[in-house]
Amino acid sequence: MLNPRQRAVIDALLPAGVDPGLPGAFESGFDEFYADFERSALLPMRLSFKAALWASAWLSPMLICRLPPLSRLPREERERALEAMGKSRFYLVRQLLLLLKAVCSFHYGAHPQVRRTLGMTP
Fold this sequence. Notes:
Layout: H1 4-13, H2 30-40, H3 43-58, H4 60-63, H5 75-86, H6 91-108, H7 112-117
Helix pairs in contact: 1-3, 1-5, 3-6
């Protein structure tokens, strides 16, 4: 189960209502995916994902000179904070964001509505 701070991170990556026809992370069933991920992913992957969520919630706001956690910021600043992680001069910070995006993509890219909207299935 994701806490509100973690949900804010996922929502900043895949927000609802941005593109017509595409659901946000939670509208596409990310909670169910995460429950399965927690049961089936290997321990190093689960721990790394949790570290990425933590860094995104607590570290990323400081990269744009805002106080953490990320959940207290408006959506535009949340997105800007995550972008700052990707531009960090520290390799580990950039890799945590990449891991976060990869795990979210495992779910989102497999969602039938997303695949249909993007023309990946007939």
